[in-house]
Amino acid sequence: MEFTNLCPHDIVIYDKDEKTILETIPSIGYARVIEEQGSPLISFGSIQIVSPPKYMGLDFHPTKLTKKNVIVSAIFAKEAVKVQYHHLIKFFSPDTGPNGVVRNEKGEIIGTKQLIYWGE
């Protein structure tokens, strides 16, 4: 299966051992959710706390894609399903939950062991 990666970074797929890289899927663009910034609620020192953003749509043109298996962020995939794009494109996102995420010794995410499919 071939993928088009529209995340803003490469996707690195690891084996279950979390050491062996099986595949790196390069980013070729960026599909983004259009959002309205959350409203300021309170500050803790220099850290501002805001309400959740409101999602206003997608910056995405599915008819321009040649491959119909697309990797996007989970937030984007959820919004794409809401507007029924999943009938045109198969959306996948990196699994960054406890069963999929691969982290380095500092705890930073460096890849995933699996993709999530956002179909029906």
Which labels suit this protein?
120 residues, mainly beta, 4-stranded mixed sheet, two-stranded antiparallel ribbon, 41% strand, flat
Helix-strand string: EEEEEEEEHEEEE
Distance linking N and C termini: 19 Å
Please tell me the total number of domains: 1
Major sheet: 4 strands, mixed
What order do the strands of the largest sheet run in, or round the barrel if closed?
Answer: 1-8-9-12
Rough shape?
Answer: flat
Number of strands: 12
Q: Average pLDDT, to the nearest integer?
A: 90
What level of helicity do the residues show?
A: under 10%
Strand content of the residues, in percent?
Answer: 35-45%
Instruction: Give me the secondary-structure category.
Output: mainly beta
Q: Ranges with pLDDT <50 over ≥5 residues?
A: none
Work out the radius of gyration. Answer: 16 Å
Count of helix runs = 1
Note down, in words, how this protein is organized.
This protein is mostly beta strands and 120 residues long. The protein has one domain. The chain is 8% helix and 41% strand. It contains one helix and twelve strands. The strands form five sheets. Strands 1-8-9-12 form a four-stranded mixed β-sheet, with helices on one face. α1 links the parallel β8 and β9. The radius of gyration is 16 Å and the shape is flat.
